[in-house]
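May I ask for a sample protein chain and its fold as tokens?
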Amino acid sequence: MRWNASSVEPPILVAVVGSGEATPQEESWAYEVGRRLAMAGAVVVCGGRGGVMEAVCHGAVEAGGLTIGILPGNAHREANPYVRLPLPTGLGEVRNALVVRVAHAVIAIGGEFGTLSEIALALKWGIPVIGLGTWTLHRPGVTVPLETVSTPEEAVNRALARARMRWAEG
């Protein structure tokens, strides 16, 4: 079931976060995550630039999906070529909060400190986060609800399951 603008039901939004300078492995994972999300009918939300963001959008668009890029600058043209709905914010890194806030679930792939901020904000707001080759978080005496997986298929399956539960809760 691919995203369909005429659908009665609003789509599931899954944010995919990761580094703008990703490794080939991270880009491969991101492409597959995007493809699988689109095939499931989810909309991909990301920061709209390069690396993981471009790869996830590429996979989603090739599978007929919709991609939203929440951009740090003021220009639509700063989006990667696979963003179908670029949203310039002029907010710089602060836009990381918007990327995760609109999502029903987040998939983090690799990443640097910007990705870590997105993971932290999502967890703070109760948005499920699935990690694929990303940060591990530990604090003595605290259970961190970051779910880790080892394949794009697992990441998408878990993210969609968590997103559907969250969407159903309102």
In short: The beta strands are 13-18, 43-46, 67-71, 85-88, 105-109, 129-132, 146-149.
